[in-house]
Design goal:
Blueprint: E1 7-9, H1 11-25, H2 29-48, E2 65-69, E3 72-77, E4 83-90, H3 95-105
Parallel strand pairs: 1-4
Antiparallel strand pairs: 2-3, 3-4
Helix pairs in contact: 1-2
Amino acid sequence: MSANQGFRLHPGAAQDIIEIWEYIAADNPQAAQRVREEILDALRQLVSFPSQGHKRLDLTSKPLRFLTVRSYVIAYAPEEVPLLVLSIIHGKRSPRIIAATLRARE
């Protein structure tokens, strides 16, 4: 995904999308495609309304915001131009894992 869409994916976030698709596609490729498209649609909407997500001070002190799409939490930097997506991770993951992932991708 490139900046011409108004956002850019951290390499780790791009890998997150691939892994989400692969995991779901193992059982249902059509569902995997739907989830991928919902995530990408949400990212496109964030470009116009970057403040729609919420802050998670329990995960990071950085000015990041978080948006949930299905069971996945998207972490992004709303003030970056183009909007920077740092991670897309399952919401049931431990907050420690999410925080560690964000620290590693800053």
